[in-house]
Design brief:
Blueprint (H helix, E strand, L loop, with lengths): L1 H19 L6 E10 L4 E11 L6 E7 L11 H7 L19 E11 L3 E5 L5 E2 L12 E10 L4 E11 L8 E3 L2 E4 L5 E2 L1 E3 L2 E3 L14 E10 L3 E4 L2 E8 L2 E11 L4 E4 L3 E9 L2 E10 L7 H18 L7 E6 L9 E3 L2 E4 L11 H11 L16 H19 L2 E10 L2 E12 L1 H9 L18 H23 L1 H15 L6 H11 L5 H9 L6 E10 L5 E2 L5 E2 L11 E9 L7 E7 L4 E6 L5 E9 L2 E6 L15 E3 L4 H25 L1
Parallel strand pairs: 1-14, 20-21, 21-23
Antiparallel strand pairs: 1-2, 2-8, 3-7, 3-11, 4-5, 4-8, 6-7, 9-10, 10-18, 12-13, 14-17, 15-18, 16-17, 19-20, 22-23, 24-25, 26-29, 27-28, 29-32, 30-31, 30-33, 33-34
Length: 664
């Protein structure tokens, strides 16, 4: 009996230690904060335990102060956002005085065992602008230690801070009585072997941080419901206020929300081969119609991403529904994500489920496999879009199509075309094609022409690149690549090179050239059938080998043999092997593989039936192809082609009539 108990204790201890040491803990935070709903501020204290896991000895420490992006109109974030027409007067001259946000450091002390006692380093505080030298930007600050911290050494920071949430801010802010705190506290940068990685807050950029443990106590009015990263440990009530303590190990950020208006639904996700996850949905009463879609999408993502890639390791996941007129929605944080459905979303596209699947997908790509979103955003955004489309197709198949009319700024009128089905991947091409040649894909997030070009490259081109890769290598090989990448780099910071190396390990041939074109050039895939000619084969005439004259014979009325010539061309500048299918009038088919290297390729056929049609990429392997309309050519006009164009014309006429009926 004693041996059995001892064995149980040993197993329990081993499991506990394994869970506690699952990640390399570099930056761990303990915070105690209080929300002032009248002043829209969060005040509190932070104890940050940080370890230098780089090969460098450093005396300067860099921190993010993200909320200062909303301090005034000259911040880098708002300067970049102001160039986007859709943002209108957002944070413009008419913005309410209490609508601005900021992060103030009231006290900052550092301690290092055996080197120096608790010492104020606030006098060394200085804002810096490592990306653009904008003197008005205060989203990164630097402090100096009394002595350098060497590789492997740790120290403790004690910080008092005040965070002012902006009105309807991006990823953080307040709307009426709802508060959302994202990127709200002083957050240490990532020290790498070449120095500090601590970028300013840009319009398009997201985030990058080290893993650690978070222990956060939040005080709000007693009638407020809180949702937060991690697991609720305990609650205390005093003087009309409630303090809730949340704890989570092995995460790289912490976000929370509070509102007296939230309705709460809890559900436990269960799957035979995956760990249980408690889903906690906080939703606003006016958005109740989206609840089933949110829950359905979240469970679909946990199931499919969990079985395809790696199981979700945390016991709880919080989903937060935010106001439609805010910019707080569709954003991911460890063990928590926000959802929002615009009033003008097309109903047939199942927006609630899509949004939940996408944002839950970031729990895997970004949450677990934690790439640098500042510098290589495609490593999470493209992987999530690719995976979301796969998940949507697995759960729902082809969706109803739709159109939006009268688009102007943020206004449009949506319609669902119930009888027109569309594969979800097609919408990725619609978003990529107009911006295909404006920017290269592998770029810093703030270095794109605008937000549309950024999304076209990082989200949609990246997803189409992955679908093309899957079609070339095969679904089984692609599955091995994705699951291996996920499992190898969970709780790590992988790079583009890590992903390419994983692909090359499983691919039958190196895919470096494929990635070089996709990631580092503006080349587009566009292969086309240029021409088809088929002439009846004639007998020999003229002089034979002995010099005898042979007169031409009359052409056969119904020739059976033809000399045919097919020319295909590379209309784009992306070089990739492509399949070419030649269909003959007698039912035979010739399947060729063109290496795609030249500007054109000629195929000749003698003695066969006439060529009826030519199809480039008949299996649609090249998801990156920007123009499928030139992939097929018929040797002569066919009645069904006319019917196809007539149908297309009627399709758009239907659109027009629907729009007229709407305003009738």
């Amino acid at each position: 009996m004693i041996k059995r108990v001892l064995l149980i204790l040993i197993v329990f201890t081993t499991v506990t230690l394994a869970q506690e040491t699952a990640c390399e803990k570099i930056a761990s935070y303990r915070m105690n904060v209080e929300l002032d709903v009248a002043a829209k501020t969060i005040t509190g204290t932070q104890e940050l335990q940080w370890r230098n896991n780089s090969p460098l000895a450093v005396k300067e420490i860099f921190f993010h102060a993200y909320l200062n992006a909303f301090k005034n109109n000259r911040s880098t974030f708002l300067q970049q956002a102001g160039a986007e027409p859709a943002w209108g007067n957002f944070f413009g001259p008419d913005w309410p005085q209490d609508g601005w946000g900021y992060l103030e450091i009231d006290a900052l002390e550092a301690t290092q065992v055996n080197k120096f006692n608790k010492t104020s380093i606030l006098p060394t505080f200085k804002y810096v602008q490592p990306d653009d030298q904008n003197p008005h930007d205060q989203t990164v600050f630097r402090v100096e230690l009394p002595t350098p911290v060497n590789p492997g050494e740790a120290l403790v920071f004690n910080i008092h801070f005040t965070a002012k949430l902006p009105f309807k801010g991006i990823r953080a802010g307040f709307v009426d009585d709802l508060f959302f705190a994202g990127q709200w506290f002083p957050k240490i940068g990532v020290l790498q072997e070449n120095g500090w990685n601590c970028h300013q807050y840009h319009r398009n950029s997201e985030f990058f941080a080290d893993f650690g443990d978070y222990d956060v106590s939040i005080t709000v009015p007693e009638n407020y419901i809180i949702g937060a990263t991690g697991i609720l440990q305990d609650s205390t009530i005093s003087d009309g206020k409630i303090t809730r303590r949340f704890v989570q190990s092995c995460v790289h950020d912490f976000a929370w929300t509070a509102s007296p208006d939230f309705k709460v639904i809890t559900r436990t996700f269960k799957h035979a081969n995956l760990p249980e996850v408690k889903i906690r949905l906080l939703y606003l009463p006016e958005n109740e119609q989206n609840v089933s879609g949110y829950l359905e999408g979240t469970e679909a993502a946990l199931q499919h991403f969990g079985t395809w890639y790696t199981p979700y390791p945390y016991p709880q996941l919080t989903v937060v529904d935010v106001p439609g007129d805010s910019r707080l929605g569709s954003m991911e944080y460890p063990t928590l994500f926000t959802v929002k459905i615009d009033y003008n979303s097309i109903p047939g596209l199942r927006a609630p489920a899509w949004t939940a699947i996408h944002e839950c997908g970031h729990q895997f790509w970004y949450g677990l496999v934690a790439n640098n979103e500042f510098e290589e955003a495609w490593l999470d955004e493209a992987l999530v879009v690719y995976s979301t489309i796969r998940c949507m197709n697995a759960v729902y198949g082809d969706l109803q199509s739709g159109k939006t009319y009268l688009e102007h700024g943020n206004f449009s009128v949506p319609f669902t075309l119930r009888k027109v089905k569309m594969n979800t991947a097609f919408r990725a091409m619609e978003s990529y094609r107009p911006w295909a040649q404006w920017d290269v894909m592998d770029n810093d997030s703030w270095a794109f022409l605008n937000n549309k070009s950024y999304r076209a490259q990082q989200y949609y081109k990246g997803a189409l690149m992955l679908f093309t890769l899957e079609n070339i290598l095969g679904e089984e090989v692609m599955s091995r690549i994705m699951s291996s990448f996920a499992n190898r780099f969970t709780f790590k910071h992988p790079t583009t090179a890590d992903f390419i190396n994983t692909v090359n390990e499983f691919a039958s041939q190196p895919m470096n050239r494929f990635f070089e074109q996709a990631l580092h050039s503006t080349a587009v895939v566009d292969y086309a059938v240029k021409s088809i000619t088929s002439e009846p084969e004639t007998g020999l005439y003229g002089l034979d080998e002995q010099g005898n004259y042979i007169a031409p014979v009359e052409k056969e009325k119904n020739p059976q043999r033809f000399n045919s010539k097919v020319i295909v061309e590379r209309a784009g500048d992306y070089v990739i092997p492509v399949d070419v299918q030649i269909n003959f009038a007698n039912g035979e088919t010739s399947k060729e593989v063109w290496d795609g290297e030249g500007k054109w390729k000629k195929y000749t056929f003698s003695g066969k039936a006439a060529v009826l049609s030519v199809i480039i990429d008949p299996e649609r392997k090249l998801a990156l192809d920007v123009n499928y309309t030139n992939n097929t050519l018929y040797a002569e006009a066919k009645p069904f082609a006319a019917r196809r164009w007539a149908t297309t014309w009627l399709f758009w006429l239907q659109h027009l009539l629907e729009l007229a009926a709407f305003f009738a």
